[in-house]
Structures are given as structure tokens and as C-alpha cells.
Amino acid sequence: MEESLSQREKYFYNINDHSKGILRQLGEGLKTRIFPGEQAMVSIVSIEPNSKGKIHSHPQEQWSFLVEGNAVRIQDKEEISVKKGDFWCTPGGIKHGIIGGPEGAVIFDFFAPQREEYKKPGSGFAAD
Questions:
Q1: Model confidence over 3-54: pLDDT tens digits?
Q2: What is the C-alpha to C-alpha distance for residues 57 and 67, in angstroms, rounded to an integer?
Q3: How far apart are CA 86 and CA 100, in angstroms?
Q4: Could you give the CA distance from residue 91 to residue 79 in angstroms, rounded to a whole number?
Q5: What is the pTM of this model?
Q6: How buried is 24 (Cβ within 10 angstroms: 0-12 exposed, 13-18 middle, 19+ buried)?
Q7: Measuring CA to CA, which residue among 43, 58, 16 is closest to residue 121?
Q8: DSSP secondary structure string, the chain?
Q9: pLDDT-derived band of residue 1, with 50, 70 and 90 as boundaries?
């Protein structure tokens, strides 16, 4: 008989616990840990200083919250400086990317609906 997991074991995480989540290497100096739910997913992105993420788009809406550091968000060809505490929405289909600041950055991304390609470990943004 399979023992059922508690709510804490199934649904509670800590942003600093790097042993949890589905690991994905987005590019040189950018990695993420993915936490899929039933309807949406969270991605904790770690960006090394001055690392650049590829410009891409996907159909899912994406909300982002800058937890640590600073960066330049590129969204629909506009470059926007962002700092700790800033958050923003990227509608589905909008081309976007990120450049880490001199201290690097940690970003909490929320996708709805889920990005199916992010439900397994891998590399790249898996988007156009």
C-alpha cells in the first residue's frame, strides 16, 4: 500500500532550496527550477551577472517578480531596467528576454496555462 504524501511534502517549497523542482538550463548563465501545478506553473530563474537570455515568445501569459539583483527586461523591443521588488506581465505571443545586471538576478516567473515543454528537465527556452 502506497503511503500518501502530506500537503507539506506535495505543495510547499522554499525559494532557496535548490534540490527541489525540475531543473532546466535556459542558456549560458541562466538556469531555472520549474514547479508545475494543475493549471499553472512557477519557474525560479537564476541569472549570473551580465548573462543574456535569448529573445523568444510563447503563447502562455507570464508574470515575473524580481526577487534579487537587477536586470534589463527586453519586451516587445523595449529595454526596461528592473530592480528588486519590480514585477511585470508579459502577454502571450510577445517577444521578450532578459539581461542580468552586474550582481545577477533571481526572478520568480508564473505561467498560465502551463508550458508543457517545461514539465521535464532540459535545456533552452523551448519557444520561438
A1: 789 999 999 999 999 999 999 999 999 999 999 999 999 999 999 999 999 9
A2: 22
A3: 14
A4: 16
A5: 0.91
A6: buried
A7: 43
A8: -PPPPPHHHHH---TT-TTSSEEEEEETTEEEEEEE-SS-EEEEEEE-TT-BPPPB--SSEEEEEEEEEEEEEEETTEEEEEETT-EEEE-TT--EEEEEEEEEEEEEEEEES--GGGGS-EES----
A9: very low
Q: Taking the C-alpha atoms of 76, 81, 83 and 86 in order, what is their torsion angle to the nearest 10 degrees?
A: -40
Strands 122-123 and 22-27, bridge-based pairing: parallel
Residue 17: what residue type? D
Grid coordinates representing 121 are: 528537465
Amino acid at 63: W
Whole-number CA gyration radius for the chain: 15
Spell out the domains of the chain, with CATH numbers in brackets: 29-44+57-110 (2.60.120.10)
Write out the three cell numbers for 89. 506581465
